Amino acid sequence: MLSALATEKRIGQVDAFYRTLHVGGTIRSCKKFLAKYNREQLNILAKDASPESFRQIQQSLLDSAALALASFTSQRITQEENSDEET
C-alpha cells in the first residue's frame, strides 16, 4: 500500500504528497494514534486561532463527526437488513 501511495503526485489539479504518520500493527492502534494526533493538532490550531475561528473549527469537527456517525449508522442498518433477507 505504501508503495502505491508514493507514486501519486497529483490529485486532480493539486500537487500532493503523502506523509506517513504512523505504521501500527492493528487498525485499533492506528485509530488510537490518529485520535491522539488529531487532538494534538487541534491544540496547536487553538493556540493560534481567535475565539471565533476556534468555534468555527469546533463546529466543523462536530458536523463532520455527526455525518460520520450518520453514515456508519446507515451502513449498519443496511448490513442488518441484508443479513435479515439472507435468512
Automatic annotation (TrEMBL):
Leader peptide range in chain numbering: none
Q: Which GO terms describe its biological process?
A: tRNA 5'-leader removal
Q: So which domain of life are we looking at?
A: Eukaryota
Can you name the source organism?
Answer: Ridgeia piscesae (Tubeworm)
Q: What is this protein called?
A: Uncharacterized protein
**The keyword tRNA processing appears for this protein:** yes
The family database entries (InterPro entries) matched by this protein are listed as: Pop5/Rpp14/Rnp2-like, Rnp2-like_sf
Cellular component (GO) terms are: ribonuclease P complex
Family label: Belongs to the eukaryotic/archaeal RNase P protein component 2 family.
* Gene3D superfamilies with a match to the protein in the record: Ribonuclease P, Pop5 subunit (3.30.70.3250)
Which keywords label this protein? tRNA processing
* Entry annotated with the keyword RNA-binding: no
